[in-house]
Amino acid sequence: MALMKTTGLDWRIAFTAITGMICLASLIYSRFISQGKWFPWVSLASTGLIITALWLPGEISRTILLDAAALVLVALVWSQDKRAGRLFLAAVLVGSILVAAGMMLGGLFHEGAAQPAGLTAKAVIALVLIGYAIKLAAIPFSFWLAPLSERSSAMTAVLVISLLDMAELGELAALRSSTPWLFADAQWIWIAMALLSMFGGALLALAQTNVRRMLAFSTIDDVGYLLLGLAAGSVGGVLGAAIGALSHSLCKFLLFGAVGVAEDDLKHPLTTADRGMAGRHPVAGAAFIAGALGMIGIPPFIGFLGRWRLYFSGIEVGSIALAIAMAAATALALLYYVRVIHRVWLGQPVEQLTSAPGNSFWVGAVFIVFIVLMIVIGLIPSIIPGLAGGMA
Description:
This protein has 16 helices and no strands. By secondary structure, it is mainly alpha-helical. The longest helix is centred in the last third of the chain and has 43 residues, at 303-345. It is globular, with a radius of gyration of 20 Å.
């Protein structure tokens, strides 16, 4: 696999393990906090398709299976909210058609295809770039992610954001390794889209009062960092993006999972008007804080292993100015996470709830396992072969 040859990280093994863990964790979660009638079956089906796609040798087969997984998840989202389902379906169809058209036009479904010349090469780059931007909800193509995050169940959002989107990111990283001209010939367009996603996502997240919508825009913010690493194209940049995707998957499970626990107690969407949720759900509060720190790239969480590589890749491709811009975007991310942690989780409660918290022991146990896993990998990255690779 091209990605392993470039970075030394066996993406298939690492992402398969995390995908399996998140699927199992989401099934345990759904036993105690309902995620919808069809969630268990859709979770297993979509996860099976994603894992199978990771291990297939042909680009066509992988693309078809990931698109099939996306359509299965569309059906789940649609069953929970028709508007969110329609927007997600539009994103899946348009993004998949554009990527497939670009791959076919450029002969990219065949390994070792030569770079097309002239306008054909530009058309291929445009189709692939816009198609993946829609699939990953990069700005300005992020129209579908906030409604999905807000209106579907917490674990449904996790399946889309943590598994499907990060599997697509892995495919894009593989293309970066096998077909470098897709990025090299339009490097600053990719970088501009990455910066727009970083700052646009962070500023939009700051403007939200609904915590789930904030998490949707924080996803867009984080995707910007991952795209910048791929645009840089160095070993460190591509490896940083791959590690960042693994961390993103784990962190989003914790963040959305914690919000789901609070909402199950409150019986309404969690907003910045709610206070003191950690007092009733301390493990969920710890999970949210750990997920936020991991997303920002604070050590000792796994996110740090990817984030510092992304900073160095930014310096390599755009000098210190790009690294400063990345640091500014991170400062904005710190602001919106600290605001929610301080006001919603650690603040004084304003709503008196007389019932006992419905937080299950098993849901809390899953949160603890994920937090420990993120710290252990961050401290001992060598437990995943290639994770401690270089940045040259």
